[in-house]
């Protein structure tokens, strides 16, 4: 018998998910993180990416653009800046963010800002490739 824990995905517009799940793969700022029951308490910033929720062998994905994940032994809560299912996601918003990052990257001469923008641009570009229809 698998253990489950509570998962909630919240955006400023609405509560997208609130249910018991087996695991959640979170696009944490430092890399993907799998949250499961009895996980050590962890708080992480999110990068643009896909959240994958697994329940009873079924997987469901959500697109997030930034935010925070709060993982506790009995729960995982994601407070996302923007979140949606891949089919409902505003691709124009993603294109706009990519263009903005490219423009800022061309304009900056600060090495730290350049590195940060390159990471952001990489995450956004990867996400764009993941949600494009096949």
UniProtKB/TrEMBL annotation:
Top-level division of the source organism's lineage: Bacteria
Topology versus the membrane: Peripheral membrane protein
NCBIfam families, per database record: ATP_synt_epsi, PRK00571.2-4
The keyword DNA-binding appears for this protein: no
Keywords assigned: ATP synthesis, Cell membrane, CF(1), Coiled coil, Hydrogen ion transport, Ion transport, Membrane, Transport
Record carries keyword Glycosyltransferase: no
Species for this entry: Notoacmeibacter marinus
Residues of the ATP synthase F1 complex delta/epsilon subunit N-terminal domain: 5-83
Identification of the protein by name: ATP synthase epsilon chain
A Gene Ontology molecular function term of the record: ATP binding
Function: Produces ATP from ADP in the presence of a proton gradient across the membrane.
Primary residence: membrane
InterPro entries: ATP_synth_F1_dsu/esu, ATP_synth_F1_dsu/esu_N, ATPsynth_dsu/esu_N
Subunit structure: F-type ATPases have 2 components, CF(1) - the catalytic core - and CF(0) - the membrane proton channel. CF(1) has five subunits: alpha(3), beta(3), gamma(1), delta(1), epsilon(1). CF(0) has three main subunits: a, b and c.
């Amino acid at each position: 018998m698998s253990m489950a824990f509570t998962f909630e995905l919240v955006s400023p517009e609405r509560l997208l998910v609130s249910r018991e799940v087996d695991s959640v793969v979170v696009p944490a700022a430092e890399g993907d993180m799998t949250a499961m029951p009895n996980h050590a308490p962890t708080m992480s910033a999110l990068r643009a990416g896909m959240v994958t929720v697994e329940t009873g062998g079924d997987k469901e994905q959500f697109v997030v653009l930034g935010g925070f994940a709060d993982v506790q032994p009995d729960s995982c809560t994601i407070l996302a800046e923007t979140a949606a299912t891949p089919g409902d996601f505003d691709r124009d918003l993603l294109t706009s963010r990519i263009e903005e990052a490219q423009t800022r990257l061309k304009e900056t001469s600060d090495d730290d800002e350049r590195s940060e923008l390159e990471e952001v641009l990489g995450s956004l570009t990867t996400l764009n490739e993941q949600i494009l229809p096949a």
